[in-house]
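stage 2 :: seqdesign
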């Protein structure tokens, strides 16, 4: 793909979601559309056919073309894309499309659509809906629009069950983008047309209503009470054979202590936000289980590669050896942190192995490298920015601060309000020397993170490159990988690019987070995919 496609994300994406302010993640009427009359009492006395989820973040909108935070847990049950991901893997599989193929140059993608699918409003799904949905996404230009704007040139609909995307440039990851949990989720064109207000493309209506093809439809949304209720869509194309819950209640509960009480008192079935110590305590309680899953959410400290003294690669390498990785794992995450050997997490097929990352906690090596640098005796101060109240970042910063004293390097840790930090961190002239980051991909392809975190056109607010790193050979590898469909060759190219990034120490790569989910012991079918953010498969859930 061209660099512009994936590198415009930060100005439109959830910066807070990525950098770390977030967690460690149609009514029953004839038309099947939202009835907002139901109140919070709907959750009372939830039985075996009702699932209650303690949702960590409030709902700003239910519009699937705008949702770009943990509300995707809810919209995932109501909306679907052309393709999805198999189980916990990155394998793209059919959903609303039954098959697809790309041209050899990866510029033309043709999808055959599933017949007999209906939206919650009763209208049929077809190629016109695909065209309208993607064009709406690009026009609104929010959320994951960056993945399609400037990439999708035209969309053809030769017949009701065939849709063809003509791209402006090769994009080997296009199918993976369509499998993302945000973005190109199909919306009823009839609902958009019927509820549009002026030129808003029904954004106002879809903020509190829904019109998808998914297994569940919106029964009620009470913004004041902080509750969203979903109910089975009788006409769902996948059917209702097997075990499924009939209703799902999301109760907005941002406080971890409150979520804990809800689970203990059986007022919630699944939690979405808890601290490691609370999870450890819950795991010991009767009637509660904690499931653990590897994620694609990585934790690292970006280093400003364009400013002295970190412009010197020897100093960046010295800092990479000076960080106490094991202390971070045990003191911050209670041991629940996987190693990270480069820009991509272990669940990504193109990730690097331990043999590819030379860095470990080694103060002797750090002192040696510093002695070979432009500041052999240290004697300088580095700045590091934190969001106010983020204890994970605070602890990591203090670990680094303590070790750097042995190198005669001072670390000035500054906490600041999110609005101030966001403004400063996005520009190379005002960004800190060091910036802790939590990051995860938007879609299941190595390019989702690599292009945007270490690409030269993705500096600061133009993407996700808070190291302000640039290397022409890295660009060459990534450009070739994004223009071919041979997966073995693509992985080889992505690994070659990463090895350069690691060798030049663009960041201190600390670890990959582990997702630990507390739930009642009678919950069955919980399915987690690390490439789909902090969501789980609602359709697969049941209660024994």
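stage 2 :: out
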């Amino acid at each position: 793909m061209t660099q512009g496609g994936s590198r415009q994300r930060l100005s439109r994406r959830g910066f807070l979601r990525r950098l770390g302010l977030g967690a460690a993640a149609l009514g029953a009427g004839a038309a099947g559309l939202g009835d907002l009359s139901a109140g919070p009492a709907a959750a009372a006395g939830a039985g075996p056919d009702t699932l209650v989820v303690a949702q960590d973040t409030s709902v700003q909108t239910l519009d699937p073309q705008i949702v770009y935070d943990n509300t995707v847990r809810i919209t995932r049950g109501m909306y679907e894309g052309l393709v999805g991901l198999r189980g916990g893997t990155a394998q793209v599989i059919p959903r609303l499309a039954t098959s697809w193929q790309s041209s050899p140059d990866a510029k033309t993608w043709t999808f055959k659509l599933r017949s007999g699918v209906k939206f919650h409003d009763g209208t049929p799904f077809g190629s016109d809906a695909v065209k309208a949905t993607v064009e709406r996404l690009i026009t609104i230009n929010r959320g994951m629009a960056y993945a399609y704007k400037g990439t999708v040139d035209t969309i053809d609909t030769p017949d009701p069950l065939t849709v063809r995307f003509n791209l402006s440039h090769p994009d080997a990851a296009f199918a993976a983008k369509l499998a993302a949990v945000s973005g190109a989720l199909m919306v009823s064109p009839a609902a958009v047309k019927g509820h549009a207000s002026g030129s808003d493309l029904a954004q106002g209506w879809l903020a509190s209503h829904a019109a998808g093809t998914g297994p569940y439809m919106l029964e009620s949304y009470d913004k004041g009470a902080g509750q969203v209720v979903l109910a089975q869509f009788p006409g769902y194309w996948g059917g209702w054979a097997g075990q499924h819950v009939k209703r799902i209640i999301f109760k907005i509960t941002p406080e971890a202590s409150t979520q804990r009480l809800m689970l203990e008192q059986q007022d919630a079935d699944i939690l979405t936000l808890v601290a490691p110590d609370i999870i450890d305590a819950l795991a010991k309680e009767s009637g509660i289980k904690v499931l653990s899953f590897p994620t694609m959410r990585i934790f690292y400290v970006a280093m400003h590669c364009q400013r002295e003294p970190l412009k010197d690669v020897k100093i960046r390498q010295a800092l990479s050896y000076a960080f106490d990785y094991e202390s971070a794992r045990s003191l911050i995450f209670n041991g629940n942190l996987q190693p990270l050997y480069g820009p991509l997490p272990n669940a990504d097929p193109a990730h690097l192995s331990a043999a590819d990352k030379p860095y470990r906690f080694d103060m002797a090596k750090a002192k040696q490298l510093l002695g070979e640098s432009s500041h052999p005796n240290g004697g300088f101060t580095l700045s590091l920015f934190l969001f106010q109240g983020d204890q994970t970042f605070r602890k990591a910063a203090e670990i680094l601060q303590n070790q750097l004293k042995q190198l005669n390097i001072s670390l000035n840790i500054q906490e600041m309000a999110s609005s101030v930090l966001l403004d400063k961190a996005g520009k190379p002239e005002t960004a800190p020397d060091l910036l802790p980051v939590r990051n995860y991909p938007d879609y299941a392809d190595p390019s989702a993170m690599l292009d945007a975190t270490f690409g030269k056109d993705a500096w600061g607010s133009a993407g996700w490159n808070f190291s302000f790193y640039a290397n022409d050979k890295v660009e060459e590898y990534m450009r070739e990988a994004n223009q071919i469909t041979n997966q073995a060759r693509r992985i080889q190219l992505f690994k070659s690019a990463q090895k350069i990034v690691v060798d030049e120490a663009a960041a201190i790569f600390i670890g990959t987070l582990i997702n630990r989910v507390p739930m009642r012991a009678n919950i069955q079918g919980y399915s987690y995919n690390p490439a789909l953010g902090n969501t789980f498969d609602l359709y697969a859930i049941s209660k024994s």
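stage 3 :: structure notes
- The first strand starts at residue 50 and ends at 55.
- The radius of gyration is 24 Å.
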